[in-house]
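Chapter review: from sequence to fold.
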Amino acid sequence: MKRTIVALMALSSFGTFAKSANLTELQKSLNDMQPLSISDDRGIITVVLNEASITPDIYDNAILGVCSPAWMNSNNSAYLKSTKEVHILNKFSYSGYAFESPRTTCDEAGKLQPDESKVTILSKTRLYTNK
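The token string follows.
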């Protein structure tokens, strides 16, 4: 029984560490955009930017910030590994874009030329409205 409890505590702390490492890395890479908040809830990371609306250019810059840690540090295999989506939202946390399978998509896009990379990223992007 004690072994089970210790194992569960270890797994729980690892999950918390992975979440905080993702958030710390995103905070650094998106620092220039000055996000209002970055949160992680059950594998969905929400980035709230101080913008009334998220334009395609703002989204492109945000996704560059999301993918750049995966591209620059190939040793960081845990980065975004368990993340299902990244939501880039306006300052009202209401509308923006959802980026699906961020780690896999970033890895694929990093191997392509810039135009092809953008198509790969956009193929995993959809409009998002918070309900």
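Two observations follow directly from the output. Confidence is low (pLDDT under 50) at residues 4-18. The chain has four helices and five strands.
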